[in-house]
Specification:
By secondary structure, the protein is an all-alpha fold. The protein has 16 helices and two strands. It has a two-stranded antiparallel ribbon. α1 crosses α16. The longest helix has 26 residues, at 276-301.
């Protein structure tokens, strides 16, 4: 999904920046925890999303934009390296489109989980979900490039996954038994929203490359796209708006991802000619500018994750800059990295870590294990259980990664 970490100009930047993988791994760990603690009752407000009708944000509202930001940081590294090698743009564009479609497909399936009618579909919700994520693993696993029988085996496994996915789409029904409906795009799901933001940032990067003024200008333009959507200035796009929230999904989320592109270039372009203090200052300065812009725009629409308001987007990017500045200093400058040994590999396999909880809970549901739905699910005990569960998922991800299960959308 976001594992496009490589070098862009080998003469001026390192081949790999470990702090980016750690940043991604830390975000995934937090994302698993946030998803798990959402089902715990009697927890403080700062462990919950701010209600849609209220102005504000908690650290929970920062997790999704943090991942969008990291997706943006990866884009100039991978695509930039391919362009620097002189690769034709058509294969690169094909790669971007394929990755985007993969993210959208998984997103649409996931967003329809909550609406499935088991009776009309002829399968339990747990069974449908379990098969869905088995199919995702079979299709998008990065199989070894071998020849002979194993190559045909891997192709067969991918074909099996596609068959399962098509079967699940065919039998899916939501709504009532008397008036069943099929799958719909709705809000595309987290994975789908990442797909739209990834596509937006890739288009921007392909057009501007390392032109910093153009990239920063695009952040402003994408914010204006949100404002135009809210003000009615782009009502002529209403046929598209039925399926895609242009202001939020392209404007707001796209601005976050492009900001990640800008930070990656600030950090890596000409890195060898600057001191660590200069590097950190560039990161922090960009964060301050984003925070200032968010503050000035707050009177317009307030702070709302659900609406992807400009201030929420810019504040989230600013916080990401400050967090990354700390990680950069600790890991890449001071070389204090032993503590992060479990996070970096997970950062290289984020989709697997993200879907594992869904796979586990659906499997437990199939065999009738529902202990945690009724126990250890309140207050401090529930929070501690969620923390332990999150680290357990990280450990399982590490184990599966060593077994060559690594998902690449």
């Amino acid at each position: 999904m976001a594992n496009e970490i490589s070098s862009n100009a080998v003469t001026s930047r390192p081949a790999r920046v470990e702090s980016i993988d750690v940043f991604r791994g830390l975000t995934i760990l937090t994302m698993i925890f946030v998803n798990e603690v959402a089902g715990v009752s009697e927890i403080p407000a700062w462990l919950k999303h701010v209600p849609p009708n209220e102005d504000g944000m908690t650290f929970v509202d920062l997790v999704f934009p943090a991942f969008l930001f990291i997706v943006g940081m990866a884009i100039p590294l991978a695509i930039g390296r391919r362009l620097d090698r002189g690769e034709a743009k058509l294969p690169i564009i094909s790669h971007i489109v394929t990755r985007t479609l993969s993210l959208l497909i998984v997103g649409v399936f996931m967003v329809n989980i909550g609406r499935i009618n088991p009776e009309a579909s002829g399968i339990s919700k747990n069974g449908w979900v379990f098969l869905l994520f088995i199919a995702v693993i079979l299709i998008w696993n990065q199989y070894p490039k071998l020849s002979g029988g194993l190559r045909w085996l891997f192709s067969g496994l991918r074909l099996l996954g596609i068959t399962i996915l098509l079967f699940l789409a065919y039998i899916y029904r939501s709504g009532s038994a008397e008036n069943p409906t099929w799958m719909s795009t709705s809000w595309w799901g987290i994975i789908g929203l990442i797909g739209w933001a990834y596509l937006t940032a890739c288009v921007v990067f392909l057009f501007f490359r390392r032109q910093m003024g153009g990239l920063v200008g695009m952040i402003a333009l994408l914010i204006l796209l949100f404002i135009g959507d809210k003000s009615g200035a782009i009502d002529f796009l209403s046929p598209i708006s039925k399926y895609l929230n242009i202001g939020a999904h392209i404007g707001g989320h796209g601005a976050i991802t492009v900001a990640g592109v800008v930070l990656a270039l600030l950090v890596l372009d000409g890195a060898s000619s600057r001191s660590p203090w200069q590097q950190a200052l560039r990161i922090i300065s960009f964060g301050i500018l984003l925070a200032a812009a968010g503050y000035l725009l707050r009177p317009l629409y307030g702070i709302s994750k659900n609406e992807a308001t400009p201030t929420w987007c810019l504040y989230s990017c600013s916080i990401c800059c400050f967090v990354y500045a700390g990680l950069y200093w600790v890991i890449d400058v001071r070389q204090w990295k032993r503590w992060s040994a479990v996070l970096s590999p997970v950062g290289a396999n984020p989709l697997l870590a993200y879907i594992l909880p869904f796979l586990l809970w659906s499997a437990m549901g199939l065999i009738g294990v529902d202990y945690f739905h009724n126990h250890l699910n309140t207050g401090v005990v529930g929070v501690i259980r969620s923390i332990i569960f999150s680290f357990l998922m990280i450990a399982v991800t590490l184990g599966l990664s060593r077994l060559r299960i690594s998902l690449r959308l």
